[in-house]
Amino acid sequence: MRHTKRLERAMLSTRFTKLVGCTIPIQLAGMGAVGSPELAAAVSEAGGLGMLGTARAGLNPTTLAPLLHRTRELTRGPFGVNFIIRPGGAPSQSRAHRCVEQAAKVGRVVEFFYSDPSAEFVRIVHEQGALASWQVGSADEARKAAAVGCDMIVAQGIEAGGHVRGTVGLMHLLCEVLDAVPEIPVLAAGGIGTGRAMAAALAAGAAGVRVGTRFVAAAEADVHPIYVDALIAARAEDSIYTCTFHVGWPEAQHRVLRSAIEAAEALQEDSIGSVVDIGGSHRTVPRFAATVADRTATGHVDAMALYAGQSVSAVTRIMPAREIVRELAEEAEEFLRRPIELHAAKTSGR
């Protein structure tokens, strides 16, 4: 287990940090197979809330256990576990219940995404002593999450990378959700890749921010180098809201890099490569599949789903997760301090 000193920023203390037990109001996005135990632990060790991604082929209680153990082994800080719950998705309902129960025994937070908030899942989480969170795309969905007992909520704007629940911009959605559930800490997600954007979300009332795209380029992320290179080369306008990568998840809009769409459309093969699932089996990746290009990917990796939010312009190089957290926190604190300093200057000038 590491013994790294976690970052502390008193000015960034929020309802979220106090509830969860972290010191920086930054939550790592789940990000499926890219969200490795090493990445989750690194974010937690830096003072944020690391999230273990479980949206992986082959997930079941047996294959989940080593991931949970590894994450706990690497950090003493709080971490969370992210589950994608959708009609017809994997794992099955009974298997999902067992996986959620496992996660809640180890993680501080268990988070859900892409279905109507479920009282049953929240009950399972609470019975094991963990906090329940739901990522939502509307104020109505936030009210449902509060009604079933969620302890915190993530409001996801249309700027977000990966699969997108929301249909409007983050700031509009955040204001609506904050008004709808004032009693619950709300995190802002979608297009946040700089400390300035983080400060804006906190100033608007968010109790924290959820960051994904920046951490895809973290040194600890389980991601293919071709994916990282594409992120570094991209700008905000290269993040496209689409339904192109629909195979395996036809009902969901998502945001990916323009280069991935162009590369996939230029191919003719039905199969463009393969990945190794959580159980060690090789799985074929069809053209236009929702499969993320993790470190195990082979074949036409540039034509796979290279998910990226509109914050992609902030990805300029590979960085350790700890440095990303520090950079965001320091810059956010600087921008949040400016109104205080401006007020002090005006007051002293009277």
Distance between the termini: 55 Å
Strand content: 15-25%
Extended strand count: 14
Rg over C-alpha atoms, rounded to the nearest angstrom:
19 Å
Describe the main β-sheet briefly. Answer: 8 strands, parallel
Task: Provide key terms for this protein.
single chain; 350 residues; alpha/beta; 8-stranded parallel sheet; 14 strands; 17% strand
Write structural notes for this entry:
Strand 12 (271-276) and strand 13 (282-286) form a beta hairpin. Helix content is 37%, strand content 17%. The mean pLDDT is 93. It has 350 residues and is of the alpha/beta class. An 8-stranded parallel beta sheet has the order 1-9-8-6-5-4-3-2. A 3-stranded antiparallel beta sheet has the order 7-11-10.
List strands and helices in order, with pairings.
Layout lengths: L14 H6 L5 E3 L8 H9 L4 E4 L7 H14 L4 E6 L8 H14 L2 E5 L5 H9 L3 E6 L2 H9 L4 E5 L5 E2 L6 H11 L5 E4 L5 H9 L4 E4 L1 H4 L8 H9 L5 E4 L11 E4 H9 L4 E6 L5 E5 L11 E2 L21 H28 L2
Brief description of this entry?
The protein has twelve helices and 14 strands. It is of the alpha/beta class and 350 residues long. It is globular.
